[in-house]
Amino acid sequence: MKFDCIIIGSGLAAIWSAKFLNEAGFSTLMVTKNQVWDCNSFYAQGGVTIANDEKDMPLHIEDTLKAGSFYNKKEAVEILSKSSLKLRDELAKYGFRFEPNVTKEGAHSVARVYHKGGDATGREIHKFLFNKDKSFFLDEALVFDILVDNDVAYGISVLHKNKKYNIYANNVLIASGGIGALYKYDTNARTIAGEMQGLAIEKGIKLKDMEMTQFHPTVFIEMKFSQKLLLTEALRGEGAYVVDENGKRFLFNYDKRGELASRDIVSRAIFLHQQEGHKVYLDVSMFDEEFFQKRFPTIYYKLKDYDINVPYELIPISPAFHYIMGGIEVDLNSKVTGFKNLYAVGEVSNTGVHGANRLASNSLLECFIFGKRAAKEIIKQNFKTENKKFEINSEELFKNDDKKYKNLLREQMWKNVGIIRTKEGLNEAIEFIENSMDKVGRMAKLRFLTAKEIVKSALERKESLGAHYRIN
Ligand SMILES: Cc1cc2nc3c(=O)[nH]c(=O)nc-3n(C[C@H](O)[C@H](O)[C@H](O)COP(=O)(O)OP(=O)(O)OC[C@H]3O[C@@H](n4cnc5c(N)ncnc54)[C@H](O)[C@@H]3O)c2cc1C
Q1: Domain containing 259 — which CATH number?
Q2: In this structure, are 72 and 192 located in the same domain?
Q3: pTM across the whole model
């Protein structure tokens, strides 16, 4: 069976792209690793940025560029903001309505972040859109290869129920998300491991800005699961403070915007304060309990499970890996550089909108705007591949020691490729990666390839910029 388009992933980028393809009568197969909700989109808390009106657009653009250290691709940011104006109506017409009140998050000049279900925005949007999705769907299917020849993509290889298959299509759209599992502390869904970025490297597909990794400043890391609990930026946007064990709001020593400075600045400040021996907390005691429970239900109940009596008790926090700005280089229609029918959308891609640091809640917006653009481009090009068969890659997908090496990699990345980077640390990380890569199975090797690219890019960029911070 051959599809018009195979979509790798089941997050927002995948589902929103699929909507337009299906509406145009394109047969679409969505393939995902675990269950449909095992994705970062499902866990998004804060919301979706939407410029308030034509007048707010230049300010949204300016905020995005400022947060990104002006390293962003301006044309892409303009598209993002301009297209956002129509998004709320488009979603409403489709049947999805945000809560009416907008909120403000760090580095936004005004309130313009829309949410739903309190802090369960991702879950609400994802559930709604997936219920309406008309794609063919294959879950519990691990993509381990993309079938490419010269500048054409022919399909993918998957492992499903312990069997390997090739599936063919006229177009392939990668919407496989970021790289959370490469770091010891991260906020990402457990499925997000940077494997497709590794595949891209293997296939000679260009990645860009891989050193630009964002660490979220306020994460509750004392959890037994690898995915740590994010404490949304909306908390600080709506009044929560960051304090140390003496109750001091030390962030003002680092930036006059205090809690509302951009994520890279707040994360670094917390990290440095911790290195001086301080403990750091989020103080949410200014919220009324009933309001907190309604506005931030996910956080409220999760913290109660850990015996933290919010909003009365301080929440211990630390920065943790959250988002990668770098990714597969694409054009303004999310088409992969150098390819006729290969697309990348969402966190796996690099459209250039986020520059050196993503403005809060611009990511779901990017999934919406560039997902639609990719779908429209696929429809317009209507590319047909010739019928070509590929051998299935016979490399062993898993080896016995994979878990051990994946954990060592997470330690290395956190220690040496984290919030503050040094030449020595980066070299240590590269050495570890190179010495370990041939000891693991194919899937782990793809992670290692991605990690190596991050470290290489971090070594190449000797000056600090945005989220990439080097002291030597
Ligand atoms: C806790 C949290 C809160 C966030 N809050 C916000 C917010 O409020 N606002 C905002 O704008 N952004 C937020 N973000 C960021 C945002 O959620 C993500 O950047 C965005 O959802 C990415 O969407 P995506 O569709 O590109 O990828 P994802 O939603 O992560 O989906 C990726 C998909 O690819 C699949 N996949 C990966 N590898 C394979 C493989 N080898 N084979 C098969 N399938 C594979 C995964 O299983 C998954 O289905 C948050 C992120 C997190 C982690």
Answers
A1: 3.90.700.10
A2: yes
A3: 0.97
